[in-house]
């Protein structure tokens, strides 16, 4: 039987190489074929021989210990050139073969050879399936047929092997494509099995939840989002199993403890046999949307409360006026002493009622003014706050419990402001009353006032501020502190934690309204168990720049290099510029990971690090710990808009570290920097 053999060496080699078989480990399928060939032909030697450009390499071998031999050794090359079965019953009997190394070399001594070419589907002879013996012998036609069948089996096996590899690579590409697609979408995509074990965690899940894919995969989902209420999870899980899907809002917590609200869509994935296999979860971050919604609802609520109360107050006025007038009239008639006394009681109580109404009305008018975006006309005079503070100090010392010590700290040359003294009085009294209530067992109340020049650095961190001269009126207590959960509610009208009848919850909202009327703003920082400080910023009348303190000279750097880590580019840039203006050099990093990379690279150059606590990729706390592991003496300034100390991971006693609440001015930054560096 003559085959169609392709004699082109290049095509032959190409056909061989596409199988990617050379130098691969032994495989059972090929070993079995070689074994059967030796068995059926009853020879001690059988080989699956693949013929490379310069060598013969054996994919399977029986009775021979070498893995490969030169191309011209043996009879393989002769066999593939002819493209036909080659049978040599006695190698020594034919002078063409008698001198071949495989015949003469004592280790081989091959006397019998039969080889069938391995023909690829294109007809290329890529090798042989051959048998051999050390004694001369014959081979029956049936054995020849078997050898030919085995040679076809070898090629088929090679084909299967190649298709399998192709399929695997297509599958891999498909998988990579799928993963890339999952990473492109802006949602967090998570696949978990029915035991809640995470199987897939896309890039956006890493960004949203802070867990790296290698940290998340294999974990239980509630290990990552520990604050999710478990019963709710169970209910969702059961719904998904029953209906195939679930959709709704969930509260989750990121690795750094950030509370997130996500719109979550769960879909059940079934196996080919329609068995529930896993759950596909898509989470869209709606935290900000929710916050805006909350703000909007709050504004609406405040507005409707305002309208409602002003209506009631108005009606109450109408009720109280006739009572007052009548009581007054009756008193002028000559009644007996007891009646007169009762009339006086009626009159004074009705007056008190009218005063209350006036108070409510003044409050609601303020709200209405704010809601409509127009500040009320402010009756204002140029005011020296110092006198006001001293006056308040006097009232407090006379009326507050003796267990509360009052201090005042007023900067000399405090700039005047433009305000109404009664209203400002109201602001300070409200803050002081709150401070008193926060110190039921006594403590220290400090009222202070100082000038401050609000610069661009500060403005970039606080939207209500504008560049210019302000004074800060601060009221600090050493009381209970405010829990971070209620901190953003305290300025809401009617928000109070005090018992019924003890507080209306209007104090701080009134303070806020008045301050806003004067173009100012208020910040609060509070440490639970340690105390609270409210800072009221009011624009000074005299808008000339306030020179930095005389020690500016000392505060200026000497070319030290500072690493600024903040995930807001605007803050990064302005901090860098400010530092450079004061003879520091600055390198910036946008997140914790980048910061560590930069620090590792410029360790010897960097004198201090300024780092923001809340960053999405690797939070400040982790970054700081890692930096301190590299260099325990590295001066670090932790900055944060957060106001609770428990979230600031620095050792309060360590002089190389400092906490600087955001927003801050360049001067505050320079001062703090100078303090940590000079330690
Ligand atoms: N210095 C402070 N320390 C601790 N908590 C405070 C402090 N100031 C305010 N708060 C909290 O903020 C809440 C709201 O204060 P706000 O002054 O608006 O109302 P109130 O004091 O409860 O009532 P009102 O001032 O109308 O008598 C308080 O109930 C309290 O929980
Ligand atoms: Mg109050």
Automatic annotation (TrEMBL):
Domain (PAC) ranges: 246-298
Keyword DNA-binding: yes
Histidine kinase domain sequence ranges: 311-542
Source superkingdom: Bacteria
Provenance organism: Nostoc flagelliforme CCNUN1
NCBIfam families named in the record: sensory_box (TIGR00229)
Pfam families xref list: GAF, HATPase_c, HisKA, PAS_9, Response_reg
Catalytic activity: ATP + protein L-histidine = ADP + protein N-phospho-L-histidine
Enzyme nomenclature, EC number: 2.7.13.3
Domain spans labelled PAS: 181-244
Protein name: histidine kinase
Domain Response regulatory stretches: 561-677
Keyword line: ATP-binding, DNA-binding, Kinase, Nucleotide-binding, Phosphoprotein, Transferase, Two-component regulatory system
Chain positions with 4-aspartylphosphate modification: 612
InterPro entries, alphabetized: CheY-like_superfamily, GAF, GAF-like_dom_sf, HATPase_C_sf, HATPase_dom, His_kinase_dom, HisK_dim/P_dom, HisK_dim/P_sf
Classification via SUPFAM superfamilies: ATPase domain of HSP90 chaperone/DNA topoisomerase II/histidine kinase, CheY-like, GAF domain-like, Homodimeric domain of signal transducing histidine kinase, PYP-like sensor domain (PAS domain)
């Amino acid at each position: 039987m003559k085959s169609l053999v392709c004699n082109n060496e290049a095509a032959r080699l190409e056909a061989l190489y596409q199988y990617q078989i050379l130098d691969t480990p032994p495989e059972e399928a090929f070993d079995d074929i070689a074994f059967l060939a030796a068995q059926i032909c009853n020879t001690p030697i059988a080989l699956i021989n693949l013929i490379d450009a310069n060598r013969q390499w054996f994919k399977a071998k029986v009775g021979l210990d070498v893995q490969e031999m030169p191309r011209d050794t043996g009879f393989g090359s002769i066999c593939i050139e002819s493209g036909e079965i080659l049978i040599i019953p006695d190698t020594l009997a034919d002078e063409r073969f008698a001198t071949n190394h495989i015949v003469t070399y004592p280790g081989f001594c091959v006397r019998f050879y039969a080889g069938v070419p391995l023909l690829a589907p294109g007809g290329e002879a890529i090798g042989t399936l051959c048998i051999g013996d050390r004694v001369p012998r014959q081979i029956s036609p049936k054995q020849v047929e078997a050898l030919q069948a085995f040679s076809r089996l070898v090629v088929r096996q090679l084909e299967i092997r190649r298709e399998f590899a192709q399929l695997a690579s297509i599958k891999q590409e498909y998988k990579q494509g799928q993963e890339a697609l999952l990473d492109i979408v802006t949602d967090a995509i998570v696949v978990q099995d029915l035991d809640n074990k995470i199987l897939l965690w896309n890039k956006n899940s890493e960004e949203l939840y802070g867990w790296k894919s290698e940290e998340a995969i294999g974990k239980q989902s509630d290990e990552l989002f520990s604050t999710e209420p478990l019963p709710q999870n169970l209910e969702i899980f059961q719904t998904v199993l029953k209906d195939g899907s679930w959709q709704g809002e969930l509260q989750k917590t990121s690795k750094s403890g950030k509370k997130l609200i996500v719109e979550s869509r769960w879909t059940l994935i079934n196996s080919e046999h329609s068995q529930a296999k896993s759950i596909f979860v898509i989470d869209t971050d709606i935290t900000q949307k929710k916050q805006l919604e909350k703000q909007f609802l709050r504004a609406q609520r405040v507005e409707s409360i305002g309208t409602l109360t002003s209506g009631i107050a108005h009606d109450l006025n109408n009720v109280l006026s006739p009572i007052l007038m009548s009581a007054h009239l009756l008193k002028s008639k000559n009644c007996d002493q007891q009646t007169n006394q009762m009339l006086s009681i009626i009159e004074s109580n009705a007056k008190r009622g009218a005063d209350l109404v006036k108070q409510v009305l003044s409050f609601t008018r303020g709200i209405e003014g704010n809601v409509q975006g127009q500040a009320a006309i402010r009756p204002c005079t140029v005011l020296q706050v110092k006198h006001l503070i001293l006056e308040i100090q006097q009232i407090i010392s006379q009326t507050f419990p003796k267990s509360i010590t009052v201090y005042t700290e007023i900067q000399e040359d405090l700039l005047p402001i433009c305000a109404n003294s009664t209203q400002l009085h109201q602001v300070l009294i409200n803050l002081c009353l709150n401070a008193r209530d926060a110190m039921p067992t006594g403590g220290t109340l400090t009222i202070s006032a100082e000038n401050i020049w609000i610069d661009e650095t500060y403005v970039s961190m606080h939207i209500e501020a504008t560049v210019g001269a302000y004074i800060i009126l601060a009221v600090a207590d050493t009381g209970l502190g405010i829990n971070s959960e209620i901190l953003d509610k305290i300025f809401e009208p009617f928000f109070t934690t005090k018992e019924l009848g003890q507080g209306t919850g209007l104090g701080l909202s009134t303070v806020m309204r008045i301050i806003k009327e004067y173009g100012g703003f208020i910040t609060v920082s509070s440490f639970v168990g340690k105390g609270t400080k409210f800072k009221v910023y009011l624009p000074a009348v005299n808008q000339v720049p306030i020179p930095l303190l005389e020690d500016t000279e000392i505060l200026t750097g000497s070319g030290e290099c500072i690493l600024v880590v903040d995930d807001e580019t605007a803050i990064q840039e302005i901090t860098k510029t400010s530092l450079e203006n004061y003879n520091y050099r600055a390198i910036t990093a946008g997140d914790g990971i980048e910061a560590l990379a930069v620090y590792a690279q410029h360790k010897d150059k960097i004198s201090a690090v300024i780092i923001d606590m809340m960053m999405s990729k690797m939070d400040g706390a982790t970054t700081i710990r890692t930096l301190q592991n590299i260099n325990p003496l590295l001066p670090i300034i932790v900055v944060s808009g957060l106001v609770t100390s428990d979230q600031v991971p620095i050792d309060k006693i360590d002089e190389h570290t400092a906490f600087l609440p955001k927003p801050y001015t360049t001067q505050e930054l320079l001062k703090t920097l100078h303090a940590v560096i000079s330690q």
